Structure prediction request, 334 residues.
Amino acid sequence: MREGYKCKGLHFFDLCEVYNALSRKNRVKSVIFPKLVLFFCHLSAIISCMRLIDGKLKSITASRVQRKSLYKMPMSHSHAYYEIYYLESGTCTFFTKNNALNLTTGDFVIIPPKISHCVYYSTTCTRVNIYYEFEDLCDQGRPFHEGIQEISSVASAHIPAQYQASVGSLIDQLINEGRMEDTCSAQMSCYLLRLFFLTILRCGIPVGDEKKKGGDTVVSDALSYITSHPAADLTLQTLAEKAGLSESYFSKKFKSETGVGLKEFITLTRLKEAEKELLATDHRIEEIASNNGFMSGNYFKDCFKKSYGVSPREYRKQHAGDQKLLLSMKNDGI
Prediction:
């Protein structure tokens, strides 16, 4: 059993909930928004670093956040520890490098360490994240239940409606335990995490294969190619030819299985790569545009501003202080 970690009552997810509440009530004014974003970015990085010791989590961590329709993660990311992503309400598309999962209420994904992922929200969603180490599910080096080893590698599964309320109650308790400062908190968190997994073992219905509609790899192959070659000639014609399908059928199939249009997904992928280059280098905007498949610097600027709300140059200025920190976190696997 690992010893829990507290920081004088300060919990990063409490601050996130305050920020989200202010946003919902329109009390975060546009004039101060960039400064708040920068502040929370630094705070997130600091707290993320504090959660780790020798590359491992100091304690099981859980949070619940509401995401609005069309919210996009700025960039794909990975962790040095396990993550459970549970969708309590809404619909979204969960992307890994080679796959896209259309999630609905009650679906969850278990993400092993160092697997890059991001999420596209097609409706307003409430999602839960639980971060843990595999050893939290072990006694004397062995999984506490024989089914744990298998379920920790499951791509996604579904909690039936009749069990979702009890799962929600477990999550409430797990979040509350993360805010406690007594000597029982770490053991209680471990106990609740194990109850969550026992619930999955009892009632979870695997849906990973079911959501691929037919079991072929056309779309997953396309996702892998797009994310691996964002600067390539990624037109509908070339991708459809690569898949051996007509353009119209390939386009419909891609949208049906990912929930996102092909052109939009290509643009989002290129923007994520461009954002990384923007923060990690001093390359000119036009050079970044060219390196990431945009036909011109102006087109890149228009796409970037539409997605991020500011120009690439302004975004770089706002996050100038984050450059070294982001690179350091990336190298540390955070």
Notes: Confidence is low (pLDDT under 50) at residues 3-39, 41-50, 208-215, 329-334. Residues 8-50 form one domain. The first strand starts at residue 52 and ends at 53.
